[in-house]
Each structure stands twice: as structure tokens, then as C-alpha cells.
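Input record, target 12 of the design panel.
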């Protein structure tokens, strides 16, 4: 389970995917498979979550990594490069962005 804390030393990556309602489930299935069978087994992976909006036009992915280099190394693997090409065909856009936690509120 992702933990959000300002003092954390890990890398947070938030990726947004934009798609049509007709491809939302296919994309969600592809992302779920990627996390279950590959991404979650990569060095430095901590946790992730997938979120779908009500209209099924956007998926938001929140993932955490021990270091930014771990995330970047995962992206460079041949398997993830192939998966990203397939994912790209199912959505209008997707954009992974690295973030630092600026503040948290309870």
C-alpha cells in the first residue's frame, strides 16, 4: 500500500492516462497485468495504485520507488518498452511524472 509522507526518501511517480470509455477496461487490464506480472517484481518497487474516473476516460496511477533510478531502469527494460508501446495504442495520451511530497494533511 502506498504511504504518503513528506519525510519519505522514496520516489513518487504519478501517471495519468487519457482514453475513451470503450478502451478503459482494456487499458486497466493491461496495466493490472503489467503490475502483477512485471513491474511489482522490479528492484526498488514499493507500492502502486490504479484509479479510474467515473466517466472511464482517465486512469491515474500512483507508484512509489526506492530511488528514481529504479523507476527509470524499469522503464528501460525491453519488456516494459514493449508494454508501453501496447499501452500507448489504447489511450490518447499517458504521462509519467516524478513528484516529491510537498505536504500531507490528515
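The sequence produced for target 12 reads:
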Amino acid at each position: 500500500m502506498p504511504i504518503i509522507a513528506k519525510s519519505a526518501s522514496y520516489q513518487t511517480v504519478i501517471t495519468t492516462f487519457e482514453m475513451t470509455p470503450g478502451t478503459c477496461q482494456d487499458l486497466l487490464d493491461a496495466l493490472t497485468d503489467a503490475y502483477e506480472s512485471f513491474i511489482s517484481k522490479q528492484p526498488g518497487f514499493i507500492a502502486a495504485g490504479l484509479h479510474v474516473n467515473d466517466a472511464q476516460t482517465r486512469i491515474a496511477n500512483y507508484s512509489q520507488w526506492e530511488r528514481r533510478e529504479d523507476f527509470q531502469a524499469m522503464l528501460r527494460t525491453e519488456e516494459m518498452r514493449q508494454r508501453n508501446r501496447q499501452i500507448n495504442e489504447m489511450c490518447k495520451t499517458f504521462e509519467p511524472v516524478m513528484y516529491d511530497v510537498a505536504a500531507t494533511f490528515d
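The chain has one domain: 11-99.
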